[in-house]
Here is the input.
Amino acid sequence: MKKGSFATLRMTGLRLRMMGMAMIVLLSGCKSRVSSDLRNLSATADFLDAVIPDAVIQIEASDATDNDAVMDQIRMQLKYFFVGQLKGRSAGSDFNRAQITIISRTGSDLDAPVSGRNLVEVHYSVRFTMAWPKGTEFPKIFSVIMPGTVKGTGFTKFTETFSENCNDGEETDISNPWHYRPEESKCPLAPLASGPGTAYGILNMSTIPVSRSRIAAVLQPAKPDKNPEYDRVWEDGQMNALLIYAKDAPGSNSPDDVGSAEFNRAYANLMNAFGKSTNGAKIYGDGKGPFPEKNSAELIFGNIGTDGTKTMKVKMLLVDSIEGMANPEVIGAASRDAEFIYYGGHSGYGRNIRGLFDFLEYPAGLYRLYFFDGCNSFDYMNAALNEKVKAANPGSPASKYADVMSNALPAPFDDAPPSVKILSAFAGSNTSYRQILADVDADTLSVVEGEEDNGARFP
Ligand SMILES: [Ca+2]
Ligand SMILES: [Ca+2]
Here is the structure.
């Protein structure tokens, strides 16, 4: 059961800047993207190798020769599936790593009656990993239903026509794809998603362009369960952890801010779990006063482990937001020796997650578990983290030094902070990843990557 209400989900602190936001253009080589090191482990999700072999979008003829503009619009269109429709199925994906390949551009003036513009149909394929709720059968017919265009009159008509009945119940404006739910029973698009039908491509429904595409998916073989690398962390008798919390409302001075409240709960739960901190650290986290002096804690717990001889050092930071942070060097310095790094806060449509990749330091030879505990953080992972770990450790795969946890679904601000559960697992050193993932939150389809080269459970 989620503890937070829907309103306290870590979706974003910011509205999506629709077409203006910089988009990453993916490599378009047509290779199977799924290799063994990209498979994932979860307690609550199955993983599928998925492909949309022929998706289609209408692009203005003047944009159609500009590859960047085409890819920007394709990615905007795909958000309607990945962060909209798919979330309505309680499923997730690694959208940010999806491999998009342009197949063809055809025709012109295809939709002149709708928009009065010259339009070109661009066909493309998408390969990605889908996280599907375990125990739920993958449907025989599951079509991708997206706006046929993401600019101009056709897009305006789409959002105006379908906002009222095709939303997530939280907001009724689907010009933000987060709130798009085409399979809601009241939504006139719903029969297209699960009905057989034969019409695929751009369908002009009452002269509104709607894109319908097939989806094919194959279940990945299940990965064997593994441990975090407890032995490497405890080799020196000490574990260093960095817990970063971000406020729900950047700039809030209220201890009732759900981000600030989780920081304070985590602090209290650490004391409950591990006893009194030996350094007499003061707790702040009320959002008042300067960061980090008034919004941080440094705790040292002795008597850790079954033999009571180990030490756990926990640094805690409460930030307003990762994006736009004035003093990211505070995070860099705090991360230097950290063997577990936790981030709890809004994903900011990925900007906070990828911002952290830049702020953290990556010491050579240090094994580390990361947990990006924001909404849909699995969608927002990209290659940058692995590249930084590999740059620090030339010649080794990133998985040797990094295990990475993320969420395939929206995550709540928790009453029982996952950070403390994971530190307790390290203290006991006898909990497998599947057990950790089940304990963290059964509803968020949490995922771990990079664990494949770790030891098996209880070696
Ligand atoms: Ca250590
Ligand atoms: Ca590993």
Notes: The chain is about 25% helix and 25% strand. The CA atoms of residues 282 and 297 lie 6 Å apart.
